[in-house]
Amino acid sequence: MGSFSIWHWLIVLAVVLLLFGRGKIPELMGDVAKGIKNFKQGMNDDETKDDGKTIENDAEEVARPAKKTTKS
Questions:
Q1: Residue 55, SS3?
Q2: Which residues share a beta bridge with 51?
């Protein structure tokens, strides 16, 4: 009662094929793969910038208050 038989999986597969069609599933999987690839590329681009600084160094510069110079 707690496990699915082969007939359950065949019915699920038939319903999925009826909803999406044969050509739509590979297209959908290709779009998912492109999305993952772009996400990974974006993560790598965020870690290093063109000048070689990392995000942590930039965050420290922003968080550090500007030094005030006073004339004596």
A1: helix
A2: none
Largest CA distance in the chain: 88
Least Cα distance to 20 among 12, 51, 69 occurs for 12
Residue 29 has pLDDT above 90, yes or no: no
54 close to 60: Cβ distance less than 8 angstroms: no
Measure the CA–CA gap between 27 and 15, rounded to whole angstroms: 18
Contacts with 17 (C-beta within 8 Å, 6 or more apart), sequence order:
25
CA distance 50 to 53: 8
Whole-prediction pTM value?
0.42
Asked if 47 contacts 55 with a C-beta cutoff of 8 angstroms, the reply is yes
